[in-house]
Every structure is written in structure tokens, then in C-alpha cells.
Write a structure and sequence with these properties.
454 residues, alpha+beta, five-stranded mixed beta sheet, 13 helices, 55% helix, rod-shaped
Length: 454
């Protein structure tokens, strides 16, 4: 469709002058037939000329008033639009935009269509400014999320942004895995998770929409202010679902109404954009865990286990803390394999790993060092503390029965303990070597025993 080029001012000028000429032409007839003036006075060339001239002058005068009043208003609107456009252009360079009412709004009150136009213009500027500001905030949020794949870091970024964007005095992120919720990150929140209805959380996830509770009565969630607990008046449960995968829930608590409408398109977009980052962080954590775990026994494999042990060794050196390791090996393991088969041997390995894991502290960990060898790491334990633990494990294993194919199988293990600090242990490799030497001493001198490295 071809666009016609025209000038509104020119058209208005021609219309006003033309209307003046029209009035000038009909006015003599009006004076004759309505005012009853004599024909020789009303319908003569001089009077016609005067009336037409007066009409032209009035048309020009009206157009001048329009130029002064209306065009001045339109010129101010044009200037405001150009100023705001320059601010938008600068935003894409320095990522900042400021727009005070004096700078961007038209300050005019009118009860007619001009007043409505002013209100619409100012509202339009507000909308654009809000969209740009939101895009800037969202962009910074996304950039922050892109910088980390660690679950704790991602959860902390999401909580901080959500509480700033939606408002709130306390928050937490619950992640979902295999029918269970885990508290991944909290901020100013007291939660009695043992009494909490996790079925309700699952219903929130399956419904897939934000649940907003007002005038909350229950006491299971509270705002921790350091000196005590405050009951929230508002609680928002924000489900995080990514491609039909249940990721988790963000819970926000507030004493005042939230800043944003959770159901708005803007809010939903921000929630949906944040969810994949948390999903990927959880996935990465699971992949790291799978890569670190020995598939058969469920304990740390040698590669990741030694890395973890090295961290504990460096921490012990920095803080002058004891660190004990126990190298253990199943006695006569080859005989078990030869008599009952390798599947039975695998069951014995898995059973030993489970017995050790069940009877050590939370801070301790187990590494499958090789074949039938395990390395038990006991941070903060002296050699005597480690010996007490190993003696207990010896008794537990010696009295345990493995059932396989109708057979009752008993087995034992031997072990060697080495402890840092010691005069002859300066490096991690030496610590492991000393434990290994003590293990073989235990093997040579009778088995089913643990010896401390001398």
C-alpha cells in the first residue's frame, strides 16, 4: 500500500482559510435575508470583498492560535520522545537508564482529549521504562546464573534475586529428587521440616502454578530475625518445573504484600528462565556424584577419593589437626572368589563397604583403593581413636554372615593405620604408604587384625 505524503498543518491552514472564505461568501446573503438589509448594501462587490477578507483573516488567526497552543504541545511531546529515545540508545552502551518525571514526562493538566493524550503518553513512557529496567535486571540475573554450575551458588543467586524482585523477609529452595525434598538453601528461615506436610509441596509441584497464602495461621515456617521468630503474613510457593521434570520449590515468606503479581507474564518468564539453571546444576551435581562413586561398592572411587583426601590433608596441615587413614584388605579374598565365584566376591566387597559406611562418623569417608582394598579416612582422629574404630569394625565384620546361594560366608579383614602429624610423614603419599606397610605387616603376622604404623 502506497503511503501518501501530506502536511497536517498545511491541510489545517487550507481548511481554516477555506472555511473563512466560505463564511465571507454566504455572509452578505445572511445580512439580506435574515437581517433584512437593503440589497444594494448587502449584495455589492465591496461588501463581498470585505466579508471574504474578514473570513480569510479569521481563518489565519485561528490557524495561528492552533500553532501556538496545539503545535507547542505536540512539539514538546516530540522533544520528550526524542530525549527518551536518546536515553534508550545510551542504555545499550552503558546499561543504565534514568528517567525522572521532569526529564521524560509531559507536565500538563487538561480535562479534554489533550489531557487524555498526556496521560497516555506518560503511561507509555512508564511502561517502556519499566520494560527496559526489567530487561536490565533480568539480564544481570541471567549473567550471574551463567557464571556458576555449583548447586549452592545457583540456589543462592535465585533466592537473592527472587527476594529482591518479589519481596520477602525469608526464603528457601527445596530441590526434588526421587520423591523426596531436600533443603538446598535458606535465608532467614526457620522450618520444622519433620512436621511439614511434604505432600502439599508435591501438590504444588504437580499443579505447576504459584500458590499464594495470605494471613497464614500455621507455625511450621517462620522468619528468623536473630533474636527470635516472626510469623509471616504471606507465603508464596513457587514451583520450578523444567520440561516435565520436577526441579523444586522456592518458598518466600513476607510480613507485607509481595511487590509483584506472581501470575503476570513478566513474573512467569523470570521463573521459567531461572529454572533450567537450577535443573542443570542439579544434573551436574548428580553427574559429579556418579563420576566420584565406585559403581559396585557405592563408596568414593580412587580418583575422586584421593582428591578429597588431599583436601583433608592440606586442611590438617593448615590447622595443625590430626588425620588418620586406615588401609584395609579382605583376608583370603581369592579363596572366596575361587570357592563361590566372582559374583559372591562382589557381594562380599559390597557388604564390607556397607558395614564400614554404617559405622563411621559423618565426617569420615571410605575410598575403594583397589581390588579388595579400602582406605578409611578419619579426619581429626589420633592413631588411638582410629584404632578404636578399627577394632569395632573388626568385631562387626567377624560376626557378620553373608548369604549367597544357600551358603553362609564369613570373612575378615586386616588393616594398617597411619596418622599425621608424624616425624616421618610430610606428604600425603607417605601417609598412604605407611598405612599400606602396616597393613602388610598385619597380613604377615596373622591377619584379622589392625596394626598402627610405627
Amino acid at each position: 500500500m502506497k503511503r501518501l505524503t501530506t502536511s497536517v498543518s498545511q491541510d489545517l491552514f487550507l481548511a481554516m482559510v477555506g472555511f473563512g472564505i466560505f463564511i465571507g461568501v454566504i455572509f452578505p446573503f445572511f445580512t439580506k435575508f435574515v437581517l433584512q438589509l437593503p440589497q444594494e448594501k448587502a449584495l455589492n462587490l465591496t461588501f463581498f470583498t470585505m466579508c471574504i477578507t474578514a473570513g480569510i483573516i479569521v481563518g489565519i488567526f485561528n490557524f495561528s492560535i492552533f500553532r501556538i497552543v496545539v503545535c507547542r504541545f505536540l512539539e514538546e511531546m516530540r522533544k520528550k520522545i526524542n530525549d527518551f529515545r536518546e536515553k534508550l540508545n545510551r542504555y545499550y552502551w552503558d546499561r543504565t537508564i534514568k528517567c525522572s518525571p521532569e526529564e521524560c514526562y509531559i507536565d500538563m493538566s487538561s480535562t479534554d482529549v489533550v489531557g487524555s493524550l498526556v496521560e497516555d503518553f506518560n503511561h507509555f513512557i512508564d511502561t517502556i521504562y519499566h520494560l527496559v529496567k526489567t530487561e536490565h535486571v533480568r539480564s544481570e540475573f541471567m549473567e550471574s546464573l551463567k557464571k556458576s554450575l555449583k548447586i549452592n551458588d545457583v540456589a543462592e543467586i535465585i533466592i537473592k534475586f527472587f527476594r529482591d524482585y518479589f519481596g520477602g523477609d525469608a526464603a528457601c529452595i527445596l530441590t526434588y529428587k526421587r520423591g523426596q525434598f531436600n533443603i538446598t538453601k535458606t535465608w532467614n528461615l526457620d522450618m520444622d521440616i519433620d512436621k511439614t506436610d511434604t505432600d502439599y509441596w508435591f501438590r504444588v509441584l504437580t499443579e505447576g502454578r504459584v500458590i499464594l497464602l495470605e494471613e497464614v495461621a500455621e507455625d511450621l515456617l517462620a522468619i528468623n530475625i536473630g533474636l527470635g521468630r516472626l510469623k509471616p503474613k504471606y507465603i508464596a510457593y513457587i514451583p520450578l518445573v523444567y520440561q516435565a521434570h520436577y526441579v523444586g520449590i522456592v518458598i518466600l515468606l513476607s510480613r507485607t504484600p509481595f511487590h509483584k503479581d506472581f501470575q503476570s507474564l513478566e513474573s512467569q518468564n523470570i521463573i521459567s528462565e531461572a529454572t533450567p539453571f537450577l535443573y542443570n546444576a542439579l544434573l551436574m551435581k548428580r553427574l559429579e556424584l556418579l563420576a566420584a562413586i565406585d559403581e559396585l561398592t557405592g563408596v568414593l572411587n580412587r580418583r575422586f577419593g584421593i582428591r578429597r583426601l588431599n583436601e583433608e590433608f592440606e586442611r590438617s596441615k593448615r590447622h595443625s589437626l590430626p588425620l588418620s587413614v586406615a588401609m584395609i584388605d579382605i583376608d583370603d579374598f581369592k579363596k572366596i572368589n575361587d570357592a563361590y565365584g566372582h559374583q559372591c566376591g562382589d557381594l562380599v566387597l559390597k557388604t564390607l563397604a556397607e558395614l564400614i559406611t554404617q559405622n563411621i562418623r559423618v565426617s569420615d569417608f571410605v575410598i575403594r583403593y583397589g581390588g579388595e582394598e579400602f582406605l578409611v579416612v578419619i579426619p581429626g582422629a589420633s592413631s588411638l581413636d582410629a584404632m578404636r574404630l578399627m577394632d569395632r569394625l573388626l568385631n562387626i565384620v567377624a560376626t557378620f554372615t553373608v548369604h549367597y546361594g544357600g551358603h553362609e560366608i564369613h570373612f575378615t579383614f586386616s588393616g594398617g593405620i597411619a596418622t599425621y602429624p608424624a616425624e616421618n610423614i610430610k606428604e600425603l603419599s607417605t601417609l598412604i604408604q605407611k598405612a599400606d606397610e602396616a597393613l602388610y605387616q598385619a597380613k604377615r603376622t596373622g591377619k584379622n587384625q589392625v596394626i598402627i604404623s610405627g
